[in-house]
Amino acid sequence: MVPSEESQLVPKEDMFWSCRQSIFDEMKKKFSQIESAADEPRVLCIIQDTTNSKTVNERVTLNLPASTPLRRLFEDVASKVGYVNGTFDLVWGNGVSVADMTPLEQSSDKSILDAGFEPGKKNFLHLTDKDGEQPHIMSQESSSTDDGTQDRFIGPLPREGSVGCTSDYVSQNYSYSSILSKSETGYVGLVNQAMTCYLNSLLQTLFMTPEFRNALYKWEFEESEEDPVTSIPYQLQRLFVLLQTSKKRAIETTDVTRSFGWDSSEAWQQHDVQELCRVMFDALEQKWKQTEQADLINQLYQGKLKDYVRCLECGYESWRIDTYLDIPLVIRPYGSNQAFASVEEALHAFIQPEILDGPNQYFCERCKKKCDARKGLRFLHFPYLLTLQLKRFDFDYTTMHRIKLNDRMTFPEELDMGTFIDVEDEKSPQTESCTDSGAENEGSCHSDQMSNDFSNDDGVDEGICLETNSGAERISKVGSEKNSLLYELFSVMVHSGSAAGGHYYACIKSFSDDQWYSFNDQHVSKITQEDIKKTYGGSSGSRGYYSSAFASSTNAYMLIYRLKDSTRNAKFLEAHEYPEHIKQLVQKERELEEQEKRQREIERNTCKIKLFCMHPVKQIMMENKLEVHKDKTLKEAVEIAYKIMDLEEAVPLDCCRLVKYDEFHDYLERSYEGEEDTPMGILLGGVKSTYMFDLLLETKRPDQVFQCYKPGEVMVKVHVVDLKTESVAPPISVRAYLNQTVTEFKQLISKATHLPAETMRVVLERCYNDLRLLNVANKTLKAEGFFRSNKVFVESSESLDCHMTYTDSQLWKLLDRHANTIRLYVSLPEQSPGSQFKRTVYQKASGDSASAEHRELENQIQISDPENFQSEERSDSDVNNDRSTSSVDSDILSSSHSSDTLCNVENAPVPLANGLDSHSITSSRRSKANEGKKDTWDTAEEDSGTDSEYDESGKSRGEAQYMFFKAEPCAADEGSGEGQKWLMVHVDKRITLSAFKQHLEPFVGVPSSHFKVFRVYASNQEFESVRLNETLSSFSDDNKITIRLGRALKKGEYRVKVYQLLVNETEPCKFLLDAVFAKGMTVRQSKEELLPQLREQCGLDLTIDRFRLRKKTWKNPGTVFLDYHIYEEDINISSNWEVFLEILDGAEKMKSMSQLAVLSRRWRPSAMKLDSFQEVVLESSSVDELKEKLSEISGIPLENIEFAKGRGTFPCDISVLEIHQDLDWNPKVSTLNVWPLYICDDGAVIFYRDKTEELMELTDEQRNELMKKESSRLQKTGHRVTYSPRKEKALKIYLDGAPNKDLTQD
């Protein structure tokens, strides 16, 4: 060691401590930085990339300091997602439409906190296209993403709710920068209108077909000859031009579908893409008649085949020529559970002949006898563009469902069709016969009528043409053309889903670069040959012949190949090769797109906010929408609002101003003094889709001055109370601060009302019926419960009332009454009978001098015990019974448990669902007989009549209590009957119905027990109010009430609607009358009370043993009520109950609850008719007893009796053309109360027949005539003629625009 070096060494111990100190200093510095950073709030940003289908479900999360500038936020996002900064926008993603949002300022140095980001919360952002263009991907040099992470994608998109979406097609090594966007693929997608994915797939395929696109461009539209809106070729031209030149990610197809004659409903109909292809080609052929493109479809897509039958004995062949646009290939042969493995196998099977032998022998014209023959198809000519349809949709006759076959079927990238031409049959020297047929072949083959001589068929230029040349020449031509029939695959239309529905998309190879792309609606992405193989199909698990009706998978449905022929294979036209009309169209579409872009930019900078204005003349609050550019000043915005509200003739412009307004609380937040030149974008806090406030266009008189509204103030509406006149004045608006004390607030009110503050009492109404006296002088308004908008009542007199306890004071009583008083309009009956009460007669002011202008009653009203005033004792049965009340008005049920009953204005019955629940009328009589106990779950013991105002002596009950009531006559409404009298009643809504009726007695002229109260609703339906002990709390201002004369219900009484049951009439249910049944009454007693009413009101002169009462469930007759049954003990009864009255032909056969009464009807198949109903009373539920009874009444031998239960609502009508086969005849059961009959109650319908009776044979004419009669009969009764499932709407393209609406179609 050199001594000089040794002198420079540091001892080891000193070096150790020096290093340790430096480490500590560094750590201390870092901790200090962390500590200071921890003090700053951080903002959590969650960014969703909405520019690409692959990224829509991905999120980028950034946790940034609150001081981070927006500029840095954009840089961090760009780095994170791999986009070039400046090629994308960030907008708020709070759940609203992205199109309505304003982008954040990219180059701003404003902190994210100042930009509206909230620390401690999730701030959602959407990454969107900038100016309609996709973000640019960072170059590989600037991106750290490895090439190996390139993501390959093939649909369907992994979006929530998509049918058949699987994760098999989504690469797991996800990377933002590797996503293929429009800017990379160069292709534009198509927007799915709703269910138009099948259309998008076909349109993209046609667009990517050079021969079709070029030919379409060469066609020129003549506007003078046709409307461009309805021209299908022109709209296709426009669409193709946009697909080629647009900068958008996706374009709409609405113009194309409009040219089809479709309306918006067609967008919700999914159709078969092969069906659309055929229909669209037909439409184009019609539109292109007499043009250069007239034969384009046939030249590109049409092939020919021969359908032949050859005798195996003499070789004679009969044949016809068919044309086809596509070849349908079956997936599985019928009856086989093994699918064809490939398209080649399916093609061989397509041309495989079948042998006609045995009973299927063919009659040979040459042999003049039936001979064995061979029947098959032979391809004569293959088209330039070969379309193969894989028939994946089938019908399962076992389950009667459409199904989809998801079996694996491979298809080659290159297909040699030369192998499918068989020349063996061409060597036959036998004479051939041509059979002309106008019928189309099954699948997609069209028929041509051709002669034996093919020499003039110029259309056959590929494949095999059977001309009348020598066999050697034909074979030579076959051999040469077989070698030229090599096709390359360029389009695979894929279906994802099941037979019930799904999604189409297309995988298409570009002839420009031989690259495969997935065209999935608006998303276009690169894919590979491996992705194409994934569309072969196939699913796991073994299946039988048919798969499930709802099995879902993703597989190829249509394949399109192009012939490989260098002399015919075209390339896409370059821009300089476009015809002149296409160049003009391109320029026109570019200008339209630029104009749309400018308009979109204006929209993105337009503030849209609700605008209100109290009209200075009409004094009504008007509402509109103010749309103003963010750069417009406040002064300019006032001018716009002034014109929107149409105030030119009402008030000068300088008497108007805009103020910040909260419509919900009716609160003026602030005014904008001195900010007339401030842009609206700054005043409103930027352009937003929704604002948390509104604007009010405030007006004033020319001699007035606008009040200044400062932020932080609260609005108070002050009502002055006068105890002497017991009046409450209209409100005066006062603005205060929440930190003001009650004393300061009184001084403020004193200035506005000129009342002395020293004696002032202030009462705050915080919410309904919450009146709070502000008596703590130093308490702030905020502590007292003031909010943005408030209501107070003030009184400042020197009366003794101010020294009383607040709740005992006259002020409290007056305010309490004011808060609970409502205004009702009461319609009085036109005429009233003589009354023991003296009736007050109202006339107009110009009438009799004895008439009073109005009458006010403030009497002591006798009501129920105050302790039970607002709540009555209710049993479980009451609650259950409330369920059976009409659901037309929910506020009755929720607030007052009312059992108001429904009737219409004309007092005619309205059918309700209260009879639909069998328990709502009575529990099953059979279960009662078995259990021997009463089922009371729907008992109405305390219903309706419980709260009677009368006791047994007929006197009023209750204690005296003051309730406000004031009535005065008013003018009748428009449309009301002449002579009808109306009262305007101001009444305390805490009054009971009983007391309310007593107040009305002088005006009606009869006791309250002799008139009824009906509440009228907006639909003019009326509900009778019958719960006398309930209050009017469910009523509100300006509700209408109708008074009708008639006896009101007493305790334990129920109003019942009585209908007559006419089992053999066309309408078996006829309303008779309204009756009153009482708790404890027997059925016989109710029948006795009905007799005089039936005689007087219905003209039915009956004896008590000549009719019965029975349960009514909608229109179905049910349990027969026996005379000794007691209401509420044996029969559950409720308000608005309905019951059947049935007139008997003889003595009553029903004597016991164990008996069963069914209605039988004989079917006579030999006469095709049904007999009338006959009642059969059974002692048990035995099927044998039923058959014996049916045999007795019909004379049919017991062993020949067959029966079936009727379906549906009584009378269970069914067509005589269906009854013999459609009903479940002779079920294998021994009792009636088990499946499938379930006959446990009276009233079931039984059809029966003689099984030895043959069904009448009908001619077609007789059947059609009978079908018309039955259809007419069943439609009159409202029953169905036959079951017909909803049919799919046929796909049609209308050449003359929209279709004529056929009103007869469903």
From TrEMBL:
Reaction catalysis annotation: Thiol-dependent hydrolysis of ester, thioester, amide, peptide and isopeptide bonds formed by the C-terminal Gly of ubiquitin (a 76-residue protein attached to proteins as an intracellular targeting signal)
UniProt biased composition (Acidic residues): 938-951
PROSITE patterns hit by this protein: USP_1, USP_2, USP_3
GO cellular component assignments: cytosol; nucleus
Record's compositionally biased regions (Basic and acidic residues): 871-881, 928-937
Molecular function, one GO term: cysteine-type deubiquitinase activity
CDD domains in the record: peptidase_C19C, Ubl_ubiquitin_like
Region feature Disordered, mapped onto this chain: 128-160, 425-452, 836-954
Compositional bias per record (Polar residues), positions renumbered to this chain: 137-147, 430-452, 859-869
GO biological process: protein deubiquitination; proteolysis
Segments forming domain USP: 188-564
Matching Pfam families: Ubiquitin_USP47_N (PF25985), UCH (PF00443), USP47_C (PF19718)
EC category: hydrolase
Gene3D superfamilies in alphabetical order: Cysteine proteinases
Coiled coil feature spans: 578-605
Bias-annotated ranges (Low complexity): 884-900
Entry keyword set: Coiled coil, Hydrolase, Protease, Thiol protease, Ubl conjugation pathway
EC number: 3.4.19.12
Name of this chain's protein: Ubiquitin carboxyl-terminal hydrolase 47
Organism, as annotated: Alligator mississippiensis (American alligator)
Gene: USP47
